[in-house]
Design brief:
single chain; 121 residues; alpha/beta; Rossmann fold; five-stranded parallel sheet; 42% helix; 20% strand; globular
């Protein structure tokens, strides 16, 4: 049985790309388009990894990572943050929130897959 990855991404095209890529490599994928639903979905799905887009509507990805870290059930789950806009200091804020790693868009599919495998094998 493959490792479970939950993807929190509002952009339908990016979500499809990440999902298709991971499923092609035998990962079990749960999609979440609304960050407000992510915590509840994570508690139900209990993924091995959560991939979070930092620029979500309605809730920031950083706030979502921080909320996961405060949740005893979810805090052990590693987070891979994805961001399209990086400013000076963003990497430090993302990592301080509790992300295990982060990638900047655009990224190659191999960089994404290597990051996922680097975190959960």
């Amino acid at each position: 049985m493959g490792k479970k990855v939950m993807i929190v991404e509002a952009n339908a095209l990016n979500l499809m790309l990440f999902t298709d890529l991971l499923r092609a490599h035998q990962f079990i994928v749960e999609e979440v388009r609304d960050g407000r639903l992510a915590l509840k979905q994570a508690e139900t799905f209990m993924p091995d990894l959560v991939v979070i887009d930092i620029q979500l509507p309605n809730v920031s990805g950083i706030s979502l990572i921080e909320a996961m870290q405060k949740n005893a059930k979810l805090s052990p789950i590693p987070v891979l943050a994805i961001t399209a806009y990086t400013c000076k200091g963003d990497d430090a804020r993302i990592m301080a929130a509790g992300a295990k790693a982060y990638l900047s868009k655009p990224m190659s599919v191999m960089a994404f897959l290597e990051a996922v495998r680097g975190i959960i094998g």
